[in-house]
User: What shape does this take?
Amino acid sequence: MSMMTTATLLSAALLLLVPGILTKESVETSPIQLMIVNSISNAPNVTHTTEIVFRGILLGAMRRLQETNTDFKFTYREDPNYGPFLVSVNGVAGDDAEHTYWELLVKNSNGVIIRPDVGIGCYIPNPNDTIILKFTKW
Assistant: This one.
């Protein structure tokens, strides 16, 4: 048996021995809030609770929420330079001609609201953060 084959088999065996590597059941999660704000129509804010895995990205938590809650839907497009770009939330889409878009804001546990310098595909929420998806104009 070659050294490469032995190393490959050993790596595969280690993956099977380490709990949680190949299963979702041992992944720790923490709650976050997702608040939808429409500053243009002044519709009432809607807040959902979802889970974020340790060091997981916001996009994953949003997908999880969409899979488990029929009252939350979103779409995004993949920009080749900047990654996932949020297009619509619950059927409301940004429009270049109207100068509207979905702004990403985060209210941390201290109550401070920040504008992350990354989008939904890179932002890593902290437990108990409130993620604010705000439909607004530029």
